[in-house]
Amino acid sequence: MAESAPKRLKTAASSAAGTGPLIGTHNGHFHADEALAVHMLRQLPAYADARLVRTRDPKVLETCHTVVDVGGEYDAARNRYDHHQRGFTTTFPGRDTKLSSAGLVFLHFGRAIIAQRLSAQKQKQTQEGGEDKPAAPVAEDSPEVELLHRKLYEGFIEALDAHDNGISVYDPAAVAAAGLEKRFSEGGFTLGALVGRLNPNWNDPRPSDPAAAQQAEDERFLEASARIGDEFDRDLDYHAAAWLPARTVVQRAFERRREFDPEGRVLVLEGQSVPWKDHLYALEAAGVPNPVLYVLYQEKPEPGAKWRIQCVPESKDSFVSRKPLPEAWRGFRDEELDAIAGVPGCVFVHAAGFIGGNKTWEGVKEMALKALDA
């Protein structure tokens, strides 16, 4: 089983006389996938003080406890995680993208990393609550770990897998057939580009001593690993501390949606806004007669705070709303908008029609009901 991978390391790590297991990866130009793979491994206790060697020498790689992105072998039982060999087709369960070394490490060790982070978060909450008793650790096979394992793969790791394996977001033939052209290049904003910029330039001075040259290259790699690792850690922390707890809030609001509109087209988040899109789409995927069109929430979790009305987009990353706010309201504010909409207390409606605001709950609810009928 993939989740048992960290257990195989206990003996090797504890017998290393004060040093961790040796991780091997390739030298030369480095990429985002092996930079992240090394970082993820080092998040686990068994790899916390792991050593690293960057080489393509098979004899040196044989001495390594764990090898990523080099060696032409994928064998989890032997801690070999390469994806370049002919015939390699492994994917994350339920996904079609071929894995890179990052995906392989996350497949086998991701649950342990997530469970460890959730356990630390749980312990912190216990201590803040004034309890001295240690909190029970979160199990790797718990529902919340499984949910985050899939979410982090689809939202973070899969893009690296695709980038390293040369897989386009859209089918190039279909794009060409549709006559579509990119309006601009987003290449400089990818995680792959972030890591790539840390490689030496072709014309940078290089130490004449091979050992010194390799050391300089390795230092750049470690910087890249820490850089992309920080992004991964931040994404994990966000989903563990904010995204996951929001699931309960959205589910409760979803169950009550008919209290505000008989057809269930309005979702009200009481208290404050939370990350709602993923959870709403997941709840709707089970099958509902009418999709939610508007989400209402307070700007701040305090008495008297203003309210917002936000349109639900057609998909998470879409800028197209299922039902935009009325065209006649867009771009207007305050009293002028009050007169146009026929609703007191209006604050604004964005020119694109995807969001608006009102000073009161009664006002924002009236805006939602009028927008539904428009």
UniProtKB/TrEMBL annotation:
Residues 1-20, 120-142 are annotated as: Disordered. It comes from the Eukaryota. Pfam families: MYG1_exonuc (PF03690). InterPro entries: MYG1_exonuclease. This is MYG1 protein. Belongs to the MYG1 family.
